Predict the structure.
Amino acid sequence: MCQTATVHLIVPTGDSNTTEIASLKAGMAQSVAISALPNPEYGKSNFAIALGNYAGNNTIAIGFSKHNASSNTTFRLLGSQSNGIRSTAASFGWNFFFNN
């Protein structure tokens, strides 16, 4: 008795990869915009808006930052949107100085 086996090859069409690449490009544009948001000056707060672009993907980022002079800390809330994809971030940091 002879048996035959059927082999099915799966060839990617590129549609899923194209969607993933578009999402990655939107994320890169968001990184560009968020990194352009300014830090607050010593003892001050700020609200900022920044624009970014990566490989033809435009994005907008907004942020609120506050530096507390008495505790020497900084608090930031950031967000961006590009092509229907949203990103958010929050951070808290302590500032200190080294004496030489």
Notes: Residues 5 and 61 are 56 Å apart (CA to CA).
